Amino acid sequence: MDFSFTAEQELLRDTVTEYLAARYDIESSRAAARIGAGWQPQVWRGLAEEVGILGAALPESVGGIGGGPVETMIIAEALGGALVVESYVDTVVVGGGLLRRAAGKRAEDLLSGIAEGSIVIGFAGLEPQSGYDYGSVAATAVREGDDWLLTGVKTVVTSAPIATQLLVTAAIDGEIALFAVDFDVANPPAGLTVESYRTIDERPAADLTFRNLRLPADALLLADAGGAVAATIDEAIAAISAEAVGAMRKVVADTVEYTKQRQQFGVPIASFQALQHRMVNMHLELEQAVAASYLVTLKLTAAPAERARAASAAKATIGRAARLIGQEAVQLHGAMGMTEELAIGHFFKRLTAVQYEYGTTAHHTARYAALTRP
Question: Are residues 109 and 190 in the same domain?
Fold first, then answer.
């Protein structure tokens, strides 16, 4: 099978990589994540206006470029290699994926806003009892006149503290529906309680409690959203798999370079055979992760069961690789590997968090087994 990119895709990869190398300062990014707003709005605008990647995979009718899964993979891998904290997967992949499957003017307006960089999405899909099952929804929505009343609890809503729009799942007569909620964390609407925090990799997230939150009629984007949510989450798995590949490429390269410079007994530690074996293992895990990322990307347009199997295979493979590569990189760097000053520690945190986003390695191993059972 030919995995080579087209000339346009190579240009996209080079453009994003060069832009981030020139404009994305990891120290400023970490400062914004730890003690600032949690992101850099000027960077987000630059990604929309200067390189146009926020609309690269969105339809041309809403100001996008009309790209597909491969373009998303290329962008996500480049963002992972630069450890970008801005909300690409939450907004463009998850938000854009759900809105593309919705209908109506509000969905189109939100897609246009994503492409131009004025909209940031937080997807509220998980609940305290749901684990990683996005199809388990206890939150409810009931009609009152022309409005909807939304009640329920949503947990670990990443990007919520910086979001301008929430996409929320709720049950209507037992069927999963999707709602849009205008949002400002500094002034949440009546009926919505927000508990904000930072995740282990210093990304903004929140738990949300809805108590008869009143929504207008056009807030309902999809009345039967179960299939749309499942397909979109598999797309998100593909995107963070690519992001993790970008991060692991950087971690492996930096670790090899460090061992060439660090000396012990008068020679570079890269000359020690035991350490060479460990770095070879890191490289092998990286190559398997790359293959898994390609597989799920190419299967996103397949039948639902085949797509889901590829997504779980990729997530389980990526989780194992992220764990080994992250831990080995820290150990080979010694105590420096966990310092705030060295990028490797921040990459380690991100690779640790990736293992739990959209399902753990164990969750997806079990899911893959269930999907392959006769």
Answer: no
Return the pLDDT at 1: 59
Mean pLDDT of the chain: 94
Q: CA-CA distance, 147 to 165, in Å (whole number)?
A: 18
Write the pLDDT tens digit of every residue in 146-174: 999 999 999 999 999 999 999 999 999 99
Q: Is 116 in the same domain as 146?
A: no
Kindly state whether residue 2 falls inside one of the protein's structural domains: no
Computed over its alpha carbons, how large is the radius of gyration of the chain? 21
